[in-house]
Amino acid sequence: MSEFENVFRKACLIQLTTSVWMGSKMLDQAHMCKVSQNSEWLRGRKFLINPELLGPLRTSSHQARDLVKQHSLPFPITSLYLIPKESLAFVDDRLTFHKQRYLEKVDAFIGTYDLARDEAKRHLEDLFNEADYPLDIRSKFKFEWRFLTLDVPGKGSVLSPEVYEREKQKFEDMMEEARELAAIALREEFAEIVNGLVRKLDKDSGQSNTIKSSMFNKLHEFMEDLVTRNIFDDKKLSELAAQARDAIAGVSPYGLNYNAQMRERMKTAMNTLKEAIDDSIQDLPRRKIRMPLAA
């Protein structure tokens, strides 16, 4: 148990909640025959407003979620992610920035809401229904996050010994799956970076094979971030990262582009590393426990 409790001294859970007004509604069966007559606004659903107006808000929401995923590890409870403590302040700061941008876009959308509704009335004609449009449209947009910690109740809690043992086992199973999910996510991310470099090193790949500094930077950044992101102490991943570090030590993109011998040595080393990473992914267990988040 102490092993998993230690994880929450290295990381914290984050829950990000964003929502954007749907801006559309399912059509009644009686109206489905009209879809072909007005395909721009009727596609099995009717658009309540021009969907392009909601695009910027959905983009902001996706950007925030991408930020969280980039700096976190997956977790077996839906909508929760594990963030290393070293990244908490940065993620919190960037989410504050994204929320400000998001709220600005909400204000801009609300400023056009009445005109957008009038436009919809012209296009939808007899399918237009005033009741489809919320009076408090601002309430349909949400952007918030919170940091959480998890623990199993202690023996001194109100739980009976039987229930305590059951909940303790659930917690340990969940954390074991979290370990597996983290290992899969980090190894697959590592594989993607190495595979990209392998393709560039292969002159017969049929694509531009100029090695750029950005490709090496991705590899360096991954290995630097691994110090904090490897919160479950995946020793195999650490070994693979050390192998990559040794392979690129003293090597520059310039040398790879103009020294055929160096390029061939690097290609061999990266292919060997790629195979080792792929094998390590195949060797991982793939359990699916999935615990729903309590309401």
What does this structure look like?
- With 295 residues, this protein is an alpha+beta fold.
- It has 2 domains: 147 residues, no CATH class; 122 residues.
- It contains 8 helices and 6 strands.
- Strands 4-5-1-6 form a 4-stranded antiparallel sheet. The protein has a two-stranded antiparallel ribbon with strand order 2-3.
- A hairpin with a 5-residue loop joins β4 and β5.
- The chain is flat.
- The C terminus is likely disordered.
Could you list some keywords that capture this structure?
two-stranded antiparallel ribbon; single chain; alpha+beta; 8 helices; 295 residues; flat; 56% helix; 2 domains
List the helices and strands and how they pair.
Elements: H1 2-10, E1 11-19, E2 24-26, E3 45-47, H2 55-70, E4 73-74, E5 80-84, H3 85-124, E6 142-148, H4 161-201, H5 213-229, H6 235-248, H7 253-258, H8 260-282
Helix pairs in contact: 2-3, 4-5, 4-8, 5-6, 6-8
Gap from first CA to last CA: 26 Å
Counted beta strands: 6
- Mean pLDDT, all residues: 85
Main beta sheet strand tally, sense and closure:
4 strands, antiparallel
The outline comes out as flat
Strand order of the largest sheet: 4-5-1-6
Instruction: Give the number of domains.
Output: 2
Low-confidence stretches: 289-295
Instruction: Please trace the helix and strand order, writing H or E for each element.
Output: HEEEHEEHEHHHHH
Computed structural class: alpha+beta
Q: How helical, in percent, are the residues?
A: 55-70%
Number of helices: 8
The portion of residues forming beta strands comes to 5-15%
Task: State Rg.
Answer: 25 Å
